[in-house]
Amino acid sequence: MKISMKISMKKRMYLRLLAVLAACMVLAASCGDDGEKLAGAAATIYDGSCAGDNGSSVTIYSGRSENLIKPVLDAFACESGTSVQVRWGSSTDLALLIGEEGDRTQADVFISRSPGPVGFLESKGLLASMDNSVLSLVDDNFRGAEGTWVGFSGRKRVLVHNTQTVPAAELPSSVFELTDPKWRGRVAIPATNGSFVDWFTVFRDQYGNDEASGWLDDMVANDARYYPNNVAIVEAAARGEIDMGLVNHYYNYRLASDAEAAGETHNASNHDLDDEDIGSLLIITAATMTQNAQDTDAAQSFVAYLLSPAAQSYFTSRTFEYPLAGGVEPNPVLAPLEALSIGSVDFDALGGGFETTEDIIQRSGILSQ
Fold this sequence. Notes:
- It is a single chain.
- By secondary structure, this protein is of the alpha/beta class.
- It has 13 helices and twelve strands.
- Strands 1, 2, 3, 4, 5, 6, 7, 8, 9, 10, 11 and 12 form a twelve-stranded mixed beta sheet that branches.
- α2 (66-80) links the parallel β2 (57-62) and β3.
- α1 (2-23) packs across α3 (91-101), α6 (194-207) crosses α7 and α6 packs across α13.
- The relative contact order is 0.17.
């Protein structure tokens, strides 16, 4: 039994690597022309004239979605004159790709949805430490112990719920309460979503495999419903298809803002679980520099730009994330940040923990719910 499971895992990882190689062969270039001005969201970050080509370049493997971070990349290229090339993909797949490429990788910088995939690369010795001038832009809790990564935005785990079917007074204070029969068939889980995988990996680290697996098995036994991603859960909760679901906080803010702009009603709201509950974890978006970076100055300048006041303001005002660099206030619509932070978890030591997480999720049966 154990042998067949190991073979299955290796086969899944191999097929995933083939998929990312096939899907990401083309690098999208981004570089402003001298005197040109940016438009759209990028112009809210930098509204000056673009600098001429400074001869530097940086290749970024981004596990952060293009619609969420491309304006920042465009602003950096325009303002600095550095040529930027980007390979888009999921954080896990790109980490596997860098691991396969080793010292042949084209990546100078890796952007990950969390420090988890970064820890995987750290365990393989494929990351370089950054200068203290970059690391010091964030608090110790938001950077790696070895100086190989910094967090630049945060997404808090919350319970989104339908405001018509679930009164706020009845909402639970912990994810452990969601296995109660009163919530049978009423809770959605985005089990294959990257942020859920990250969250469950931390759950395992904090409570052990037995308790984490037991919780997920109990959720399945309590008829928890599977949805592929956070957006699908928020939309389902807003229309009353499901009563509640575990998601990142910012999706509901974004969809509520869109609904308000369209003059529509949005019947979903975020519920914060107790500050010390694992369900309130703050997941950090991380940036790192690879050991193979060709232009370390350009690479570190880009990471520092992610932590600049203009970029931090963009993340919190446009994508409703928590800014992590000092001196930038969170969007006033966001709840005060007192939740557990992923920075308190030794992700550098977790390494390839997400592989075990995915195996537990597969075996739980949640994907068939």
